[in-house]
């Protein structure tokens, strides 16, 4: 039994590509949205993920060290020696 679809319709179905690669778009749209048209690059994605993770970890480290140093100050006693002391409130 022959196919019910015309031969040129079968050809167009085979030539179709998934996604936006086959859609007619302007060069401006392609320049502004390259992630829609470029195949994903796994090594670059892994490097970017590691870089962002390290940046966030470094910011967390800086925040943690500032929190620890915030309540300390260097006090000098009458003999001239230096001591690190915690800040205390005059109200306590």
Short description:
By secondary structure, the chain is mainly α. Helices cover 47% and strands 11% of the residues. It is rod-shaped.
Strand content: 5-15%
Shape: rod-shaped
What is the tally of beta strands?
A: 2
Rg, rounded, reads 32 Å
Q: Spell the H/E element sequence.
A: HHHEE
**Mean pLDDT across all residues, rounded?**
79
Structural class: mainly alpha
Measured distance between first and last alpha carbons: 97 Å
Please, how many helices?
A: 3
Q: What can you see in these coordinates?
A:
This protein is mainly α and 92 residues long. Helix content is 47%, strand content 11%. The protein contains three helices and two strands. A two-stranded antiparallel ribbon has the order 1-2. β1 and β2 form a beta hairpin.
Write the layout of secondary structure elements.
Blueprint: H1 7-15, H2 27-32, H3 42-69, E1 72-76, E2 82-86
Antiparallel strand pairs: 1-2
Sum up the structure in keywords.
mainly alpha; 3 helices
